Amino acid sequence: MYLKKHEKNYAIISFFAQLICAQTPCSNGKAGIYPCKDYDLLSNVPVNILANTNGNPEGSDIWGWTDSTTGKEYAIAAMTNSTAFVDVTDPVNPIFLGRLDSNAGNNYWRDVKVYKDHAFIVADNVGAHGMQVFDLTKLRGLTSAQNFTADVIYNTDFLGSCHNIFINEDSGVAYLVGCKNFRGSRIFNGGPIFVDISDPKNPTKINHYANAGYSHDVQVVKYDGPDTEHKGKEIFIGSNETEVTILDVTDKNNVIKIAEIGYSQTVYTHQGWFTEDQRYFILGDEQDEQKIGMNSRTLVFDFEDLDNPKLSSTYFGPSAAIDHNGYVKGNLFYLANYNAGLRVLDITNISASTNSMTEVGYFDTHPENDATSFNGAWSVYPYFASGNLIINDIERGLFVIRKSGTLGLENQELNKSFSVFPNPASENTIIKSSNNQFVKSVQLYSLLGQKVREENNINSTEYVLNTKGLKKGIYLIKINNLRTSKLVIK
């Protein structure tokens, strides 16, 4: 159903009034107002665009979807009262496509994962919400905001709220954890509920497991790590409040506890992620900074022997900001560090007992401070093929960022033969020869390499390029098919 006319008009006006859409490079430690190191700001969509106006909406989880048919990239931003869908294919000019409202009012947390072109959404601390299933192919071809409805509401066992969801794409099974019934009472001790989602619009419960305690967050893999005894099995790693629990969930009717491991100064075992070789598990304790008084702490466990896991090393960040969700891609660990924003850690040396991780970049979405409080970056999604990263910030909404100097079309500075001014430009920019060399042709490309202007057979020493009507952002200008420079449209 489309937004009501006045709501739609307000959304469009508000969107363009508040969207930070021009790329802001990280220069001298800042991208605009945001502290940064080696990561540029591409765009920001604020909370009041993403969420509906009920209550006091905030940002929470985030995930991404790449359309296998079109190759377009979409951000799925979870809010306290809804889930927003944003086309970020052009990261400098994101398109807000609408939202799916909560089934049961506002809550503090909402989590989402994707499987077979469908989003699976759960919410915590709210009544009869269940699991929403939304067909993401509905986003294809959209250019304006809509209000969406879920395709399926899964609420077997009077499933009300769940803290989290994980999907093992190898098996087509969703793991719902930290769940409660309609009345708000914990079910199955907060342990995992196994749901077959191989047919996304027909989710079917397989079983549940209640003998390992409450799982706050989880990762499940088809195991291909160094422990040959468990190769090929479906292994569940639960961050279970006071310890990490390892389960063999290959047979959902015969779950086997493999091991559990704690660590010193445990406060709240929150969330973790495997390295890509499944040798190390990187874990965050969400409340140790606040309750004990230490800088942001990340623990690395050696899972070479799943039956005998060991603490391998501990990393302390540069501030006392609270660590939240973290994900591995290649040799980098992307950590949403609340008030300290996104921190990027190099884990090439992760096997070392000391200095196992090194901070190599950051983008601080909460410039006010790096205090030990629950503000700022909630989560990050680093898995787009484009290399763009998306962050969901509690107060400031969706950020799209990118590692500095990694544009698909690399810049080759103009030599002294031509000048381009003004730059930044608005309606026009002038290309002028400084040595009587003719400007023969001019092409202008978007950040994604799409040609947006082309003029040929110019044959003049000075040419005025019309840039009126172009979206704000960074473009690449090519002169005589040889020389390229950046052009900023403001």
TrEMBL record:
Ranges where the Secretion system C-terminal sorting domain occurs: 420-489
Keywords attached to this entry: Signal
InterPro entries according to UniProt: Choice_anch_B (IPR027589), Haem_d1_sf (IPR011048), LVIVD (IPR013211), Secre_tail (IPR026444)
Keyword rRNA processing recorded: no
Pfam families listed in its UniProt record: LVIVD, Por_Secre_tail
Protein name per its UniProtKB record: Choice-of-anchor B family protein
Higher taxonomy: Bacteria, Pseudomonadati, Bacteroidota, Flavobacteriia, Flavobacteriales
